[in-house]
Amino acid sequence: MSHTCRIELDGTPHEFPVVEGSEKELSIDISTLRDRTGYITLDDGYSNTGSCKSAVTYIDGDKGILRYRGIPIEQLAEHSTFVETAWLVIWGRLPTEQEMERFSRRLTMNQMMHESLRSHFAGFPPNAPPMAILSAMINAMSCYEPQMMDIEDDNTMEKAAARIISKVRTIAAASYKMSIGQPLMYPHPEYKYCENFLHMMFSIPYREYWPTPEVSRALNLFLILHADHEQNCSTSTVRMVASSQANMFASCAAGVCALWGPLHGGANVAVIEMLEFIKQSGMKVSEYIERVKQKDTKLKLMGFGHRVYKNFDPRAKILKDAADKMLARLNISDPLLDIAQQMEEVALNDDYFIERKLYPNVDFYSGITLRAMGIPLNMFTVMFAIGRMPGWIANWKELHDDPKSRIYRPRQVYTGHTLRDYVPVEQR
Ligand code: CMC
């Protein structure tokens, strides 16, 4: 196999190296293209652009493969916890017992917010979107962590990672408590990561909430499945911000903003709104799908389609099974699950979706799982953000540790006016 690529421009051939990834993925290194030829590449939406080399997550979209640091998502979903998976994603290997113990201790030590940070919540209106609060508060955390602004060794790196991963759940739960007018609950030092989050969400003074093992397990699973997903919109945003050498808090806060949109993490809210609409309007699933196909409505089947997965999304498969089992064990019957299952069946047999390779993605069944846990709809995307934090941190670290990293600075093809003169206001 040739390890160069020949491109002919204006009759002159140019050779570029072919870079091969560890799973034999091939790419053409065009980093010298502009210097040598004056041309740049144009790839709106980056479908064909490898923005970096990364060793964190591997996806094969045709085969429905997702691996964190080489380990299949199915194995992690079955055997791991979110905290262990987070360490794996950030550090590149499974932790030893001592490393796990140290990281868990650091998570516990960092679970509280600075008391002054708690008072920031009073500045938000009661109906403020929790994603806005989350992003603002992660950024505000940097004001309280001057010693974390320059991360120069692994020890500080682990402390900083523990701080964000631990405090993000405290902030998330506090934003929910504010929105419903209940007192903010302090984290409990004896509780594990997921139980502690659920405690801060659902306990009230003098009435302790304790989740069932099914609910804790489902939350662990949900967070594991969201822990990383290579160069998606929010992770690329984190890397973009990090490339200017911005600190980890600022970079992750930017990731939260990117995740918010309905085409990305916000899809988990949009899916439930779509299913609720169908239920309440009494519309048939097939009728809704016909409306989606008409296109003039700009309506999409939310929770369907993916830029990379063109066969199935392995996360959706795991979550669907988990949602089924959890609902059965908790004896909950959710009419939205029935509508979702009907919708999947109709869409998967419809030429429109078959031709475009549109399958349910992770967000299609995640909302059903979150509802069964009692998580309110406006917190769904926040849950995704808590889960994605290890992936953002791992990508931040990868870039930070790379001595060759440069500021991200794409080019553009300018399509605006050519040179024209300024016109004084009275002559316009
Ligand atoms: N419903 C109906 N048609 C769709 C959908 C959908 N959900 N997704 C894609 N299409 C159509 C699209 O209109 C286009 O049709 P045509 O070729 O006739 O113009 C074709 O399929 C290709 O779509 P695309 O927009 O070029 O695909 P993309 O890779 O740019 O977008 C996507 C990927 C996930 C943004 C898109 O599929 C979508 O908007 N899905 C719904 C939102 C969603 O569920 N997002 C969560 C993604 S997974 C978790 C995450 O990343 O956060």
From TrEMBL:
Cellular component per GO, a single term: cytoplasm
Family matches, as InterPro entries: Citrate_synth-like_lrg_a-sub, Citrate_synth-like_sm_a-sub, Citrate_synthase, Citrate_synthase_AS, Citrate_synthase_bac-typ, Citrate_synthase_sf, Citrate_synthase_typ-I
CDD domains, sorted: EcCS_like
Pathway participation: Carbohydrate metabolism; tricarboxylic acid cycle; isocitrate from oxaloacetate: step 1/2
Membership in a protein family: Belongs to the citrate synthase family.
Catalysis performed (reactions): oxaloacetate + acetyl-CoA + H2O = citrate + CoA + H(+)
Superkingdom per UniProt: Bacteria
Gene that encodes the chain: gltA
Record keyword Phosphoprotein present: no
Alphabetic keyword roster: Acyltransferase, Transferase, Tricarboxylic acid cycle
GO BP field: tricarboxylic acid cycle
Source organism of the structure: Candidatus Competibacter denitrificans Run_A_D11
Name of the protein in question: Citrate synthase
Key word Nuclease present: no
Single GO MF annotation: citrate synthase activity
Catalytic machinery residues: 306, 363
